[in-house]
Specification:
- This protein has 547 residues and is α/β, with parallel strands linked by helices.
- It has 4 domains: 5-147, Methylthiotransferase, N-terminal domain (Rossmann fold), CATH 3.40.50; 151-316, Transcription Regulator spoIIAA; 317-443, Transcription Regulator spoIIAA (2-Layer Sandwich); 448-545, no CATH class.
- The protein is built from 17 helices and 24 strands.
- Helix 8 packs parallel to helix 9 (274-284), helix 9 (274-284) runs parallel beside helix 10 (303-311) and helix 10 packs parallel to helix 12 (340-354).
- The chain is globular.
- Bound molecules: 5'-deoxyadenosine (5AD) and iron/sulfur cluster (SF4).
- Iron/sulfur cluster binds at residues 12-13, 15-16, 49-51, 82-83, 194-195, 198-199.
Length: 547
Amino acid sequence: MPPRTVYLETYGCQMNELDSELVAGRLRQLGYRFTPEASQADVVLYNTCSVRERAEQKVWSRLGEIKKRKGDEPGLVVGVLGCMAERDGEAMIDRMPVVDILCGPGELDKLPELIDNAVRTRASLSADAPARRSANQVALQGDTSRRSGTLAAAGDNLELLDLSRTISPVDEGRSRSAYVRITRGCNKFCTYCVVPHTRGAEMHRPPEHILDECKRLADAGVIEITLLGQTVNHYRFEHGASVSIGGVAQPQKGRTYKGSHHRDAFSGEHVTTFADLLGRIHDEVPSVQRLRFVTSYPRDFGDDVLEVIRDSPRICRYLHVPAQSGSNRVLKTMNRGYTIEEYDEFLDRARSILDQPEIGRPLMISGDVIVGFPTETDADFEATIEMVKRSRAKNQFIFKYSPRPGTVAYDRIPDDVPEALKRSRNNTLLAIQAEISDEISREQIGREFEILVEGFSRNEKKKRGVDVKPGSGMVGLTVGGSSPALATETETEPAGLAQFSGRTDGDQIVFFDVDTSATPADDLIGSIVRVRIDDAGKLALQGTRIK
Ligand code: 5AD
Ligand code: SF4
């Protein structure tokens, strides 16, 4: 049989991008080939997002398109992976019988088996005969069987998917930037959020597994690692309580945060905290030039973490800490678990420890805000405006509230802010944030930064006729997500002045010119250069290389 060809499209967050990478790696090991063209594939997979309705609509329209094709190609296998599969469950198949495979984000280790079953049964099915679909083509956790607790993790092969990550050297076109998962799932249950329902209970990966993965990535040439978790700063692993199955240490259930002690006050067990983990990766994997992490939860952020960042030259001065709202009443209804005064206090504390513009290391904050959360009044929205102004984030991701079935807000609080008001609040905040972002950019003029060179700037690429499609290009097309932008560039460029793009460790984009007849582009890309900022444009800072 010729190798099966897979097309994989990814929606949503960085966690999904990482999942797609792991799934693709596993399938490649099993002999599958990947194509960037859905039309060339005999297995079409969508790794989906449920966080807002719009993300789901895109997938529904993709499924509508592929339905037409399936009429002509009954052997075609269509799979929906990720949060939407988990949230909609088999209702998805009822609505779109074109779907052969459903695989939740907590079941991705089972995907090869599901594809295998689907391919074998598919040929004998017609597109409108969902009833005969094999039961072995659906893998969902369901709310009742949230993978919870160390012992319940027995037979949990999900960790094996991360452990089996295939890491090829960066000179084979792989990105020099990589994600590493440290925590899965979420226990917070913010009332608007679908994630605890789709990704299940919070589980922390054993630190040895994380360190090992970072080392393997570094050995393969990766120089920037972003640690991932829904509430990444809650990472905590209790070694005395760890369990190993078949020689594989198992992820550990998240517990109530008890502070940042190295010795647990209650059990006396040795604990690896988030601060310990950051410190260990920084010290034990020195070839990683930049270590970052997302997303942080504003509460329980100990000074120990901030101090490790301050004392570690290769940990980035960048924190993504969403406030979501500036109104205490709304924060309470969202079940966020902190007041806006506590959020402000955290930012003050973080800045007092980490903000060092004089050494080219200003602390950059980014956040998320939801506007139009049910019951949000003008006064609540004013409080959010004030919060945004006080926070002075480098950027804020602003979202209109989207009611998600299955969440507490959806069930109990009517979506009573009219769409037009959501839109106008969204626009108001965008304009305010744009001014703040401009101000922050202008503050950088005259400062010197270490810049990690990522490649030619967008304009330079256009000039050279290089494809500037968004996304990593790693596994099919990546839609609607940010991706590690650090791809290896192999084009041979004419000698002369060229504009490059890179990032500060506070995640600000910088353009600067380099004479490539003196320094070839290949030597520059992936290296760190020193740049003085001369100007601040809309998209990026402009600088001059000084070393
Ligand atoms: N509606 C709008 N925005 C949401 N987010 C999460 N759930 C919703 C929702 N139901 C936003 C939050 C979160 C980001 C990833 O998406 O701001 O931080
Ligand atoms: Fe979307 Fe959240 Fe699932 Fe990521 S975890 S894919 S943001 S719903």
